[in-house]
Automatic annotation (TrEMBL):
Listed Pfam families: GST_C (PF00043), GST_N (PF02798)
InterPro entries (alphabetical): Glutathione-S-Trfase_C-like, Glutathione-S-Trfase_C_sf, Glutathione_S-Trfase, Glutathione_S-Trfase_N, GST_C, Thioredoxin-like_sf
Boundaries of every GST C-terminal domain copy: 85-209
Lineage summary: Bacteria, Pseudomonadati, Pseudomonadota, Alphaproteobacteria, Rhodobacterales
Organism of origin: Salipiger mangrovisoli
The protein's name: Glutathione S-transferase N-terminal domain-containing protein
Length: 209
């Protein structure tokens, strides 16, 4: 059994999608970041950084923070969605790190300035808007002729997809990135993706793209 501490954000959905894909038993503990629940002492005892998601593996007693590390841990433990062959494995890990180090953080900044606070900083809007376009172009090029980001369906796809699901928030028309759009729509049809998207609360229809 996994205890999942999460909210309805791209980083939270990465983990719930993987848990659904693995078919694991897990208990959801909603952490409402709009009310500051992530700063409560009982949550900080699990994740000192005060961010979702986090998990506790009841089997091992391990408490783990950072979505990328959680994906890695669960895939490693259950032998799925992370190749054993070294070269293929490193391709998946490289794209997972790409998401963690660039795609997620830059899109998050775009959300802040373009979606939540438009008009507050023309410089920031231009800077992060340009970086979003660049990153989408990188992903679109990688998906040329590929069904998934790094070979077979993997934690790299699960890490990136929830951020692309917020394309409207960062001002992206997926029609401008046809390979990303086709990949996004393929994953959108997966039952585990659909279930994981609605954790911890049902937020309605997944954006079509």
């Amino acid at each position: 059994m996994i205890d999942l501490y999460t909210w309805s954000t791209p980083n939270g959905r990465k983990v719930s999608i993987l848990l659904e894909e693995l078919g694991l038993d897990y208990q959801v503990h909603p952490i409402d970041i709009q009310t500051g629940a992530q700063k409560a002492p009982e949550f900080l005892a699990i994740n000192p950084n005060g961010r979702i998601p986090a998990i506790v593996d009841r089997e091992t007693g391990l408490a783990l923070m950072e979505s990328g590390a959680i994906l890695w841990y669960l895939a490693e433990k259950h032998g799925a969605f992370l190749p054993e062959e070294p070269a293929a494995r490193m391709q998946v890990m490289g794209w997972l790190m790409w998401q963690m180090g660039g795609f997620g953080p830059m899109l998050g900044q775009a959300h802040h300035f373009l979606h939540f606070n438009p008009g507050t900083s023309a410089y920031a809007e231009k800077r992060f808007g340009a970086e979003v376009t660049r990153l989408y172009a990188v992903l679109d090029a990688q998906l040329e002729g590929r069904t998934h980001i790094a070979g077979a369906y993997s934690i790299a796809d699960m890490a990136c997809w929830p951020w692309v699901a917020r394309h409207e928030w960062h001002g992206v028309n997926l029609a401008d990135f046809p390979n990303v759009r086709a990949w996004y729509r393929r994953l959108r049809e997966r039952p585990a993706v659909q279930r994981g998207y609605q954790v911890p609360t049902n937020v309605g229809e997944i954006p079509e793209g």
